[in-house]
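Consider the following assembly input.
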Amino acid sequence: MCAMRPEPGHESGAADALGAGWKAVLTPEEIRRALSRIAHEILERTHGGEGIVLLGIPTRGVDLARRLAERIGEFEGTQPPYGSLDVTMHRDDLRLRPARALRRTEVPPDGVDGKTVVLVDDVLFSGRTVRAALDALNDLGRPRAVQLAVLVDRGHRELPIRADYVGKNLPTARGEVVRVHLAEIDGEDSVLLGERAA
Amino acid sequence: MKRHLISAADLSRDEAILIMDTTAELASVAGRPIRKLPTLRGLTVVNCFYEDSTRTRTSFEAAAKRLSADVINFSAKGSSVAKGESLKDTALTLEAMGTDAVIIRHGASGAAHTLARWVSGSVVNAGDGTHEHPTQALLDAFTMRQRLCGGERGQGLDGLRVTIVGDVLHSRVARSNVLLLHTLGAEVTLVAPPTLMPYAVGTWPCKVSYDLDAELRKADVVMMLRVQQERMSAAYFPSVREYRRRYGLDAGRMALLPDHAIVMHPGPMNRGVEIAAEVADSPRSTIVAQVSNGVVVRMAVLYLLLGGAGEGAGA
């Protein structure tokens, strides 16, 4: 009755958009190991992952949160709940750009009240996305604690925010661009570093 | 998104789908303990209502407040309009006070379009005479997608058969719906007494029929329109009883519909005229869902018009 049309791609897009000069800083193997290590660290820091909820920040943070939850499930036998948290409506730079499409927020049925929420994102840069996420989380309930896991920390923080779990610390220049590709969205796992197109 | 929302015809397919997708995401906010987002903090939205309205005005007010905008309600009754102030002077007054968006309902067709030339903020048409009511069409389209298409992101209403029945002549809801549903790929059929069919309906992107029973058998959606007696200056049909017999939806007629079909009504209803009470209260009726979707659709429209910077489509 109602035919589907494919959703147009968004944000960074696939590898074909990349020109020359991009260098891989993490291989698929290294990403896999980094996520395994973060999963172990989360278990260690939260005493076996009791009462944790993993919330990914769209787009790629959601897939990372799911992978971490699966990894923790493999290690401990029970998979923690995971979901997604869209921060668009809480961003501080909304007025600087045209209105953006919203992404999905899906909170596990038990909610976040009294839980230890681990926010998951691909790249930590200015810290503004995480600030928006903390505000968005505030509207959903009152977690017992909030922690932050990122695949790449590239520095240049503009707010007093730090990550609890980091896949790789990547020193960058402000003008450089870090791009995370994940198999679920981009067809392959990789982290790339390049110059911003002039 | 463009700066204003005056007509459903202003929306491209992609923009209409963006509004519906945004609506779907915002709908989850209604189920949260805190039903408020900070997005439009510091912006002022004026509700400018020259005609009576319950659901549209309150729904725009609720939408703006849930996005943290400041809302000023202005109705013709009890304002300087009663002293003879023109639309232009009222617009300039509101402009001087600094408003970011004006929601206008007016008895004259084209009022919103005219107002858009005088104010610097966004103008949203909340019904102008017998012309258009685009946010009603958007909430109807969203309700159809939710109920009949699974509500997936990025979807249109391709191939959906929608029958709109009743006082099409005086209905801004019908015109906006025909334009928007056509953009989204639905097939629209209008059914009305010949006297209540608009003059140039042949140029509209829809089919026309005078046989309700035949149309009901193949409809996915039947939308009943209110008989707008307040706009009728002449006798358009012999009696209410005859209208009900030929164009009213009662339980017997509802049984002709396919099993999955839904019954819609933009409200306010004349129970016992165009729609029987037992139909309005049946599980097939989406009338209450339309009202709650109305708030969320208007949040999406306000966010997309005011939430970003300047012009340009967001996606």
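Residues 44 and 98 of chain B are 8 Å apart (CA to CA). Ask yourself how this observation constrains the way the partners meet.
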